DUF2065 domain-containing protein
Amino acid sequence: MSTTLIVAIGLMLVLEGLLPLLAPKAWRQTFERMMTLKDGQLRFVGLLSMLVGLGIIMFAHHFLAN
């Protein structure tokens, strides 16, 4: 496993931990709302999240790396 991948996973965990650390009530309410979504709606949220993440990666690669 490359160092970059390990660092990326670590950064993802740090960012995911910010909301429960800083706003646990909002984090809990968000998950309660997600529990009421249907499978198709959750899949759409997951797909949208992946596409936004991919867009950020592509932006950083093309415009910030140079």
